[in-house]
Amino acid sequence: MKRYSIMRLRMNNEYRPYIVYAKRRETPTVVELSLEPQDGVRPDFIPGQFVNISLPEVGPEAKSYTIASTPLDELIVVAVREAGDFSQALCGRKVGEEVLLSEPLGYFYPEDAQTPRVFVAGGIGVMPFVSIARAGSGASTILLYSNRAAHDVPFHAMLSELERENKNFSVKHFITRENSPLHGAVNGRIGPEHLARALQDYPEGNFFLCGSIIFVRDMRLVLKDLFVPEERIYTESFF
């Protein structure tokens, strides 16, 4: 298996018009958008991939968002955290209004269905893992999921349901800025002891890290200190 480190930058590819089919507020700071291609042809994708979204009236730069839906769904679903002019404009799109999407991109996904997986997510970095977990697999998987506050955990209900339905999938929550009311959550950050325990439980597992540049850097350094081989570490970072 190869290791990919993906920095999400604008890519030179064609954009197609999509219509906002539905929108809902997932948390106080995150909005979920369901997007329908105007031509009725939804592109194929692999769970874990992302699309670039362009809003020409906001500026020339596109932004990248991971696809939260699965290849069996009819729509492209993305989750947007309201942080900055672009994301606020995107969240402000009304049902029926247009956005421009690239084709699905990226290589941040498991390449086989059986190797155990340790997913490590910071905040909205959980999105690749939502799509991968929803798509299903026989591989044993644990998600270590860090957020600042218990009331602002994207897709908490969906992940809990997936955990109940799939005996091979489990979630461990970490809440960093308050005492968490979430059952079983750790009050604090994902630390070396937690990654060491995951390595002990999944000695042959691959580690997938997704979150801010600093979050991914710190998690990767811990894994290196634990002597996890580079080829078993997959990373994806965002600004």
From TrEMBL:
Pfam family, one: NAD_binding_1
PROSITE patterns noted in UniProt: FAD_FR
Superkingdom assignment: Bacteria
UniProt domain FAD-binding FR-type: residue ranges: 13-111
InterPro entries linked to this entry: FAD-bd_FR_type, FNR_nucleotide-bd, MRET, OxRdtase_FAD/NAD-bd, Riboflavin_synthase-like_b-brl
GO MF terms, alphabetically ordered: oxidoreductase activity
Protein name per UniProt: Flavodoxin reductase
Organism phylogeny: Bacteria, Candidatus Adleribacteriota
